[in-house]
Prior knowledge:
By secondary structure, the chain is α/β, with parallel strands linked by helices. The protein has helices at residues 11-23, 34-44, 60-69, 87-95, 109-120, and strands spanning 3-7, 27-31, 48-51, 78-82, 100-103.
Amino acid sequence: MKKVMIIEDDPFLRNMYLRKFVNSGFEVEEAENGKIGLRKISTFMPDIILLDILMPVMDGFTTLEALKKNPAVNKIPVIMLTNLAQEEDMTEAKEKGASDYIVKSDNRPNALVDKVNAIIGAG
């Protein structure tokens, strides 16, 4: 079973994505900020990480940097999932090692599941 980690501070969105991925056959772990997410990733070892940018405690860019510096998890693809649509944010995410950058308001949850399957391979 494919595993996805959702790091998102908005409980409504986190739960919506969690349900969508569980219903699509994924094993899901969740965290409300980057610090908790980093701790859970090392034991959960997801196939892909969905990472919000604007979060309390540890934001998405800081979390992404920490992930990419850790040889145990730095090959896990990371999709930045955010409402920041500025070109600078997209560029920064790619420079820090994100596999993709998705603006939440522009994408329905089904499209996100399709994108994840395209990156990690379905099945």
